[in-house]
Design a protein that fits this description.
Elements (H helix, E strand, L loop, with lengths): L1 H12 L1 E3 L1 H23 L2 H7 L20 H18 L3 H18 L6 H15 L8 H4 L8 E3 H21 L3 H4 L2 H7 L6 H7 L2 H23 L1 H22 L4 H8 L6 H8 L17 H17 L11 H4 L14 E11 L5 E3 L8 H7 L3 H16 L5 E11 L5 E2 L28
Helix pairs in contact: 2-4, 2-14, 3-4, 4-5, 5-6, 6-8, 8-12, 8-16, 10-12, 12-13, 13-14
Length: about 450
């Protein structure tokens, strides 16, 4: 037992060179700056945060609708400023904590443009709040706010490595389902995607579809070990650049490919990064591990944090439904770009006192983008029903709300997504079990 504790302490608190973390801070700060201001200039903020009068927040965060409007331009501009502060290391802790809180807020505010990479940025930002990434080559060092250091603890490096590993590996495992293995999804994602004849011909070829399907599984599963092992590192770096730049060009998924490439720095031996990219001698590392005052608290936090990260993506296994169909357990589970869904939904209300039935004009309440995503997401259908109920309650009318949704998964014929006879305004949302009004689905 004593030997195990000593090994664990050495694993956590062995001093290592901090050059990789410092350079990662530069790149990370730049990327979150670009993500924030880019959302303004590309129109993303306008479409998702300014134009809507109602937003599909995470359930329980409906109160965040009060933030919608032109003020979100200022909100994202401030996040961009915090990104620059992180990059140069000026009041790093304040900037990093503030950005994390604001980005988490925007993540919880809307699901219309949900992206698992947004969730990854929440987690990586939170981790960066805890790391001493500003103790070298920063304004905080220049102004004497913090002492210059060339080293950090080993856990500062590995907490980021493990977080990215979980995202990759869970993403790989999620792809192991029938429509990915027979290239059904990839075929739909790439065929006739481009007008350029030779690209269209390549992307429509069956061999290409299977190549993308299986290399996607293998890349996500093995890229981190391949980057850590010296013999395969060079090949893995080349594969990473090809993979992520291809995804960036084809799918336009924001900063994630570039954050993943920046993450490669942490997988090299710590001393190598300083020799390659920074001036100054590598720090002389003490042979004996000196434990910080809160060593047990640090170890306990890391274990709990990763226990949550390992369990949370598995929650769909104890919900008795097909996650590809019901979306129950889909978010925060690294299940991105796995399926293609399309469909339509109609809502109607019934006055419980007069029995008067009326169809709902979605365009009177939602933006075109919200309407396109509404039909295929049962939780959003339920939220809109709740919104309609609350709207009528303000007028003193007790309304039942019904919806008729038909959905196609990966090109299959449309089928009912929910029970159209259930008053969605009168049922609670089940977080930890299947919602019985969502229909069943099987790949058989």
């Amino acid at each position: 037992m004593i030997t195990f504790v000593i090994m664990l302490n050495r694993l956590f608190f062995k001093p290592i060179d901090n050059a990789a973390l410092v350079i990662f801070r530069w790149l990370f700060g730049l990327l979150i700056f670009l993500e924030s201001v880019g959302a303004i200039f590309t129109g993303w903020v306008r479409v998702n945060m300014v134009e809507p009068t109602f937003s599909f927040t995470f359930i329980g965060f409906e109160w965040m609708n009060v933030l919608l409007g032109p003020q979100m331009y200022i909100y994202y501009s401030i996040m961009g400023i915090f990104g620059l502060m992180v990059m140069v290391g000026w009041r790093y802790r304040l900037a990093m904590v503030a950005f994390t809180l604001m980005w988490t807020g925007t993540y919880l505010m809307q699901k219309t443009s949900y992206n698992n990479h947004y969730y990854l940025l929440v987690l990586v930002s939170f981790i960066m709040c805890l790391l001493p990434a500003h103790h070298y080559a920063s304004v905080d060092v220049k102004t004497g706010r913090v002492r210059s250091r060339h080293h950090m603890y080993n856990w500062h490096r590995w907490i980021l490595i493990l977080m990215m590993t979980i995202a990759y590996v869970y993403g790989s495992v999620a792809k192991i389902y029938p429509d990915w293995l027979d290239a059904t999804f990839i075929r739909r994602a790439f065929t006739n995607r481009y007008q350029t004849p030779w690209l269209n011909e390549l992307f429509s070829h069956e061999t290409f579809h299977y190549f993308i399907s299986y290399t996607g599984i293998l890349f996500d599963m093995f890229i981190v070990p391949a980057l850590l092992w010296r013999r395969t590192r060079t090949l893995a770096v080349i594969a990473s650049f090809v993979f992520h730049l291809f995804n960036s060009a084809v799918f336009q998924i924001g900063i994630f490919p570039y954050m993943s490439l920046a993450f490669i720095l942490l997988l090299y031996p710590p001393d190598d990064i300083r020799r390659r990219f920074l001036s100054g001698k590598p720090p002389s590392m003490m042979k004996r591990v000196h434990l910080p005052k809160r060593a047990n608290l640090v170890k306990g936090f890391v274990f709990i944090f990763f226990a949550v990260q390992l369990i949370l993506p598995l929650r769909h296994h104890w919900i008795d439904s097909n996650v590809f169909w019901s979306e129950e357990g889909h978010r925060m589970s690294w299940r991105m770009m796995l399926r293609s869904k399309s469909g339509y939904v109609t809502f109607y209300t019934v006055n419980k006192n007069t029995e008067e039935r009326r169809s709902v004009q979605l365009s009177e309440h939602l933006t075109p983008k919200q309407i396109r995503g509404l039909a295929t997401h049962p939780d959003m259908i339920w939220q809109f029903a709740q919104y309609l109920r609350r709207s009528h309650e303000k007028e003193g009318v007790d309304m039942a709300v019904y919806a008729d949704a038909w959905v196609s998964l990966n090109g299959r014929p449309n089928k009912p997504l929910i029970d159209s006879g259930v008053d969605l305004a009168d049922v609670p949302w089940q977080f930890f079990s299947a919602n019985p009004w969502i229909t069943d689905f099987s790949f058989d």
